[in-house]
């Protein structure tokens, strides 16, 4: 990291065109400075901002991308209603060490005639999010590959809340020999344990009161497994608890923390517990390590 970068006055710039982005990156590189990227879809909350602060510790300059990626939404999902709060997002980033907001249009990211997709396997095909959202990881992998190529970061920050996505993106950068190091940021939670998410704003007051059950069950399952309780019985009890409290459960699974393949016993190495469930119309995900 260039220790002289603080002498350069920081002025947050919003860029929407690739030529301007490339000029800005060239200026940063000409000063010998490093770059960190925080990819987002906007509707920023403290979870995102924690990644921005971590990015500022890892590099001289920080780029935050804001792009609601249509290719990771299925027709029945919430693309049209996904929260778009650009003015508030920009105001929040003004209070951080962000140097550039990269806010391309859909036409910039996917111009007429766009015909290439990145279709990941490995951690993207283990029967978790991919089972319920089979379109999702090709959309994520394609847009992340484009963002890493466009922004040329030394490091890119992704939150652990989207744990399967984190593993997919890490393998993407490795498999495509991209020079970016993928860095994980810890899950940021409300005081009652609910993982921060842009979709939490969809919860009604009763749903919001119930939502922390997911994290509580994850912690209870993790404690039981760590104490030697059979993995299968711990998960069965957790699934029953989640369903009884009003959730429609997609999955509660114990997986290898690196490969995300199913684990049969608590002695299988590092374990990650992952959950996805709907309450009302809102789908929530969470995970904890064992």
Give, in order, the helices and strands. EHEHEHEHHHEHEHHHEEE
Question: In what order do the strands lie side by side in the largest sheet?
Answer: 1-4-3-2-5-6
* CATH structural fold name of the largest domain: Rossmann fold
Low-confidence stretches: 3-7
Query: How many separate structural domains?
Result: 2
Oligomer: single chain
Tell me the CATH superfamily of the largest domain: HUPs
Largest sheet: 6 strands, parallel
Mean pLDDT: 95
Provide structural commentary:
With 290 residues, this protein is an alpha/beta fold. The protein is built from 10 helices and 9 strands. The strands form 2 sheets. The chain has a 6-stranded parallel beta sheet with strand order 1-4-3-2-5-6, sandwiched between helices. β3, α3 and β4 (100-102) form a beta-alpha-beta unit. α6 packs across α7 (163-175) and α9 (213-226) packs antiparallel against α10. The radius of gyration is 20 Å and the shape is globular. Residues 3-7 have low confidence and may be disordered.
In short:
This protein is α/β, with parallel strands linked by helices. The chain is built from ten helices and nine strands. It has two domains: 5-185, 3-Layer(aba) Sandwich (Rossmann fold); 198-289, Pantoate--beta-alanine Ligase, Chain: A,domain 2.
Properties at a glance:
9 strands, globular, disordered N terminus, Rossmann fold, Pantoate--beta-alanine Ligase, Chain: A,domain 2, six-stranded parallel β-sheet, 10 helices, 37% helix, three-stranded antiparallel β-sheet
């Amino acid at each position: 990291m260039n220790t002289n970068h603080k002498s350069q006055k920081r002025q947050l710039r919003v860029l929407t065109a690739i030529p301007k982005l490339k000029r800005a990156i060239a200026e940063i590189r000409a000063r010998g400075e490093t770059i960190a990227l925080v990819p987002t879809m906007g509707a920023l909350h403290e979870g995102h901002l924690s990644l921005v602060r971590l990015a500022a510790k890892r590099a001289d300059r920080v780029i935050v991308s804001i792009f609601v990626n249509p290719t990771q939404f299925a027709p029945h999902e919430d693309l049209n209603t996904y929260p778009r709060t650009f003015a508030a997002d920009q105001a929040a980033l003004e209070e951080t060490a962000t140097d550039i907001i990269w806010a391309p249009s859909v036409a910039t990211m996917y111009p007429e005639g766009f015909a290439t997709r990145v279709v990941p396997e490995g951690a993207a095909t283990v029967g978790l999010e991919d089972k319920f959202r089979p379109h999702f990881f090709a959309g994520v992998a394609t847009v992340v590959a484009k963002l890493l190529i466009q922004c040329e970061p030394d490091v890119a920050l992704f939150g652990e809340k989207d744990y399967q996505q984190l593993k997919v993106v890490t393998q993407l950068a490795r498999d495509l020999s991209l020079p970016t190091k993928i860095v994980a940021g810890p899950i940021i939670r409300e005081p009652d344990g609910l993982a921060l998410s842009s979709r939490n704003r969809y919860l009604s007051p009763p749903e919001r009161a119930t939502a922390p059950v997911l994290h509580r069950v994850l912690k209870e399952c993790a404690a039981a497994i760590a104490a030697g309780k059979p993995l299968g019985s711990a998960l069965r009890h957790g699934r029953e608890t989640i369903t009884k409290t009003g959730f429609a459960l997609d999955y509660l699974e114990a997986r290898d923390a690196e490969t995300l393949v199913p684990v049969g016993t608590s002695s299988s190495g590092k374990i990650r517990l992952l959950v996805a469930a709907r309450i009302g119309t809102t789908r929530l995900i969470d995970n904890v390590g064992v």
